[in-house]
Amino acid sequence: MRQLAIELKRRGVDAEAFYSTVPEADKKRIQDGFLNGSPRVICATTAFGMGVDKPDVRWVINDGPCESIECFYQEAGRAGRDGKPARSILIWCDGDFKSWRDRIRQNAGSAMTDTERQDKVCKAALERLNAMSDYCESEDCLRRMILRYFGDSAAEHCDYCANCTYDPETGDVDQEPSREEKARRKAERQARRSERNARKAERATQVDEHPHETTRGGPITTVSISDVDQAIIGYVSGVNRLLGHGLGATKIVQGLRGSRGVFYVEQGLDRLDGHGSLRGVSEALVKQHIDQLARKGKLSYGDFRTLLPATEPEDE
């Protein structure tokens, strides 16, 4: 970090280094200065940025991959919080992932005495790293990959990420798609939308195999609106406290309906108060309540449409 900052300064860039052994007084000076506009560039380890809210960061450049998409999402999300265009760049090579795998195998769960639990922690960490590797190597829309990882859906092309704007003839990114390409993508989206609507219509005419999960009639009518709303708000708050970030609506709904998938168990989400509390309520109904809570300001959306607790306290 220090060497990079020195080189940037030599080239006329207003830069400072920030890492663990920097004296506390210098850390404060650098951090306060960055918030006020100088230095304009920070060469830092992951320690910098925790609790720092600078809305007008235009670039976040990662020199090497993170150990998980969750970590990358946190770091890349520091750019463009003011809503203006910003860029996240990730520089990586295969050797970076080999180093991460070696580190995880040596250290993941090392403080645990239960070898079975240790193996589970290591396996979960490697799975998260593999997801990061898949993201780096993918030729699909990068925004869509992140949204799907967090349990949400997205259009096949965002027209903003490097993969969506890549021009194979020049090797450049940030190229505006041609009119023909935009038309092709629009036709694809319309076709997928028609397929989804057809599947929804088909499901609506089928009898649910599990009466306690039906969308019409049955036990669902015994659950009050306030009970559903409070369960959703409580679970979203618990997820954010536990993980340090939100999840997409689909992941929240599956948790409220009691999913025991690997993601929920390894992250400890299955032990949260409220997990499985809406097991008898249909997925469509829970999503409808989430949308209503967001419109009323009792929930909010973060980056990549992740659900967050209300930004302001509710009125009594």
TrEMBL record:
<dbReference type="GO" id="GO:0000724">
    <property type="term" value="P:double-strand break repair via homologous recombination"/>
</dbReference>
<dbReference type="InterPro" id="IPR027417">
    <property type="entry name" value="P-loop_NTPase"/>
</dbReference>
<dbReference type="Pfam" id="PF09382">
    <property type="entry name" value="RQC"/>
</dbReference>
<comment type="similarity">
    <text>Belongs to the helicase family. RecQ subfamily.</text>
</comment>
<dbReference type="InterPro" id="IPR036388">
    <property type="entry name" value="WH-like_DNA-bd_sf"/>
</dbReference>
<dbReference type="InterPro" id="IPR018982">
    <property type="entry name" value="RQC_domain"/>
</dbReference>
<feature type="domain" description="Helicase C-terminal">
    <location>
        <begin position="1"/>
        <end position="123"/>
    </location>
</feature>
<dbReference type="GO" id="GO:0003677">
    <property type="term" value="F:DNA binding"/>
</dbReference>
<dbReference type="Pfam" id="PF16124">
    <property type="entry name" value="RecQ_Zn_bind"/>
</dbReference>
<keyword id="KW-0413">Isomerase</keyword>
<protein>
    <recommendedName>
        <fullName>ATP-dependent DNA helicase RecQ</fullName>
        <ecNumber>5.6.2.4</ecNumber>
    </recommendedName>
</protein>
<dbReference type="InterPro" id="IPR001650">
    <property type="entry name" value="Helicase_C-like"/>
</dbReference>
<dbReference type="GO" id="GO:0009378">
    <property type="term" value="F:four-way junction helicase activity"/>
</dbReference>
<dbReference type="GO" id="GO:0005694">
    <property type="term" value="C:chromosome"/>
</dbReference>
<dbReference type="GO" id="GO:0005737">
    <property type="term" value="C:cytoplasm"/>
</dbReference>
<feature type="region of interest" description="Disordered">
    <location>
        <begin position="171"/>
        <end position="221"/>
    </location>
</feature>
<dbReference type="InterPro" id="IPR036390">
    <property type="entry name" value="WH_DNA-bd_sf"/>
</dbReference>
<keyword id="KW-0238">DNA-binding</keyword>
<dbReference type="Pfam" id="PF00271">
    <property type="entry name" value="Helicase_C"/>
</dbReference>
<dbReference type="InterPro" id="IPR032284">
    <property type="entry name" value="RecQ_Zn-bd"/>
</dbReference>
<dbReference type="GO" id="GO:0006260">
    <property type="term" value="P:DNA replication"/>
</dbReference>
<feature type="compositionally biased region" description="Basic and acidic residues">
    <location>
        <begin position="176"/>
        <end position="215"/>
    </location>
</feature>
<dbReference type="GO" id="GO:0043138">
    <property type="term" value="F:3'-5' DNA helicase activity"/>
</dbReference>
